[in-house]
Amino acid sequence: MPEEPKRRFSIIIPVLNEKKNLENLLPKLNAYRLIIIDDGSTDGTPELCLGKDNVLFIERGKKMGLVSAVLEGFRNLSSDDRYIVTIDSDSSHDPESIDSMIRYAESRKLDLLIGSRYVKGGSSEDSISRKLMSKSANILFRLAFSSRIRDATSGYRVYSRELADFIVSDNKIQAVSPSYAGQVDILRRALSANFKIEEFPIRFRKRGEGNSKLRTGDIFQYLSLVSRKGYLMRYVLVGISGVIVNEMLLKAFLGLIGNASEVIAVEASVISNFVLNDKITFRTTGNGSGKYFLRMLKYNVFNLGGVGINIAIFLTLINFSFNPLIANLFGIIVAFAFTYLTSISIVWRR
Ligand SMILES: Nc1nc2c(ncn2[C@@H]2O[C@H](COP(=O)(O)OP(=O)(O)O)[C@@H](O)[C@H]2O)c(=O)[nH]1
Ligand SMILES: [Mg+2]
Hints:
By secondary structure, this protein is α/β, with parallel strands linked by helices. It is 55% helix and 11% strand. It has helices at residues 19-25, 45-49, 66-74, 97-107, 128-145, 161-169, 171-176, 181-192, 216-229, 231-257, 261-281, 289-319, 324-347; strands spanning 9-15, 33-38, 55-59, 83-86, 112-116, 123-124, 157-160, 197-201, 203-204.
């Protein structure tokens, strides 16, 4: 059987001063159609890329961000591109995986296949500090978006044409997250639009020549995206509002009914937290009052469980002669983790 022509796929390569790395990479990609997006490299990158017949070279002149470069690639696909690969040009991503990734994406009819360092069979040769940063970013992603994806920040991906077109028509991504955070923004939107997404193990190498283009500002952009769009920060803020409700009610009722006012204060703050989380944190809309009360009941039960956990940890640590305030703090943290995890995985499970 004749081999299928590989040029039905385009490979998008964002580049910024990567001449030495591209000298290694480009010869391995002769069989593919390449869309290289350069943002004003001054190291001879454009000269290296120009004049190759499988390369569409797009020069933008100034640094506009990694994901904005990917989107520029999406806007320049060929009409017969059914899948699109994005790959870093710094020698971190092994082009050997491209064919197996595309085959896997095709056979599973996926819209997005993420080359992942953190699934079984994947690995990363990054420095400890970079690994720590990337792992933290991914833990935050999973907690904030209630997702199972383990390598949300990876730039080695296979996109279906449908998803690429969907992303290009979504002008918010371009405006909000043109840089690294955009990888996660794309994933978040694809998840909530129910595109089919999986991960594929890759071996991630240390970058070849040159330095990372990641800046401190990119990290803040990521944190800002996660806190604005994710569940976790909103949940924390609602939790703080619950503490205020609790303290105010306790103050109001203490003189009237004594210690029993603690019960009223706790229950009222649980209910007010529920109402706010349902409306603001998880933005639940129109799925029936029956379900609403069921969620409220579940939330109540888990919160009472949280109170139990808090007290149990408090009493245990006190027994080990911890300072009571520290013991209580530990209790609060574990109880918070418990109620948050049950909220995203059970009460407001999507
Ligand atoms: N066109 C373009 N490419 C970029 C930009 N920022 C990073 N890249 C490229 O995106 C890939 C990943 O960047 P890199 O610096 O390796 O990020 P890191 O792996 O997180 O350290 C590399 O191929 C870079 O050359 C940008 O603003 N514009
Ligand atoms: Mg890199």
